[in-house]
C-alpha cells in the first residue's frame, strides 16, 4: 500500500512538471498593408496607381518608360522597344519647340519641370473615352500617372507650370484642372508669379495686359486665360481672338487647327 502511494505521489509531481513546460503560443501579428507604391515594386504583373477618386489596376502591358520630354506637355515613352509620343490631355504649357514661335514665357521652366518629374520613370497612361485616342499629329492622348501614383497633368497645373486647356469638348478631369489652375493663380505659383515674365525677351507679347471691351466685358490678351468653354457663342470667341492679335499670336490657343476660325464646336 505504501509503495502504491509513493507511485501516485511521483506521478503527480511529473504531471505538474510537464504542465509547467507547456509551449507558449505567440500572438500572430498581421503584417502592415503595403502602400500602393510598395505594391508596384513588389509585383511584376500588377501596378496599382492611386488617382484622385479610385485606383487604376494596370497590367505590365499598360506600363511605359519615359524616354524623353519634348516639351512641358509632350513626351516620348517606350514599351518593349516600341516608342510613342504622348500629349497630355487637359493642359497646355508655354511653347519651347515650335519653330514658328519664339520660346514663350516660362516655357523653359515648364519643360525642365516635366523632365525632372518623368525622364526615366515608369508611367501608366489613362485614356479618356470623351476624347480621341490620338490627335491630328498622331500623338497618343492621355493622363499620365507616375509609378508612385503622382498625377502629372494635375501637378503641372497646380504648381503653375501649365494652363488648363480644353480642346473642343469637356474632358474627364476638367473641373479638377480648372480648380487647380485657380489655386495656382491665387497662390502666384510658377508662371502666375508676378516676377515670372518680367523679362521682355521671354514674352511673346507685351507684358502689360491689353484689354478690349466688347459688350460682354473686358478681356486680357497678354496671357493664355480663356478656353472655348468660357464663351457663349463662336462669334464672341472670334471677336476676342481677333482683338488679341488673331492667328499671329493666338495667345489663348483658341484656333486649334490653325484655320483662322476659333471654337468651331460652339457653332
Kindly describe this structure.
The chain has helices spanning 2-20, 36-42, 107-118, 152-158, 174-186, 234-243; strands at residues 46-50, 55-59, 63-71, 74-79, 82-88, 91-92, 122-126, 140-146, 163-164, 211-212, 219-220. Mean pLDDT is 75; it is low at 24-59 and 200-217. The strands form 4 sheets. Strands 3-4-5-8-7 form a 5-stranded mixed barrel. α4 (152-158) packs parallel to α5 (174-186). The chain is of the alpha+beta class and 267 residues long. The radius of gyration is 30 Å and the shape is globular. The termini are far apart. It is 25% helix and 19% strand.
Q: What is this structure, in a nutshell?
A:
This protein is of the alpha+beta class.
Measured on Cα atoms, how large is the radius of gyration?
30 Å
Which range does the strand content fall in?
15-25%
- Mean residue pLDDT: 75
The biggest beta sheet reads: 5 strands, mixed, barrel
Sheet with the most strands: spatial strand order = 3-4-5-8-7
**SS element count, helices:** 6
**Secondary-structure class:** alpha+beta
End-to-end Cα distance: 116 Å
How would you spell out the order of helices and strands?
HHEEEEEEHEEHEHEEH
Quantity of strands, as a count: 11
Overall form? globular
Fraction of residues in H or I helices: 25-40%
Low-confidence stretches: 24-59, 200-217
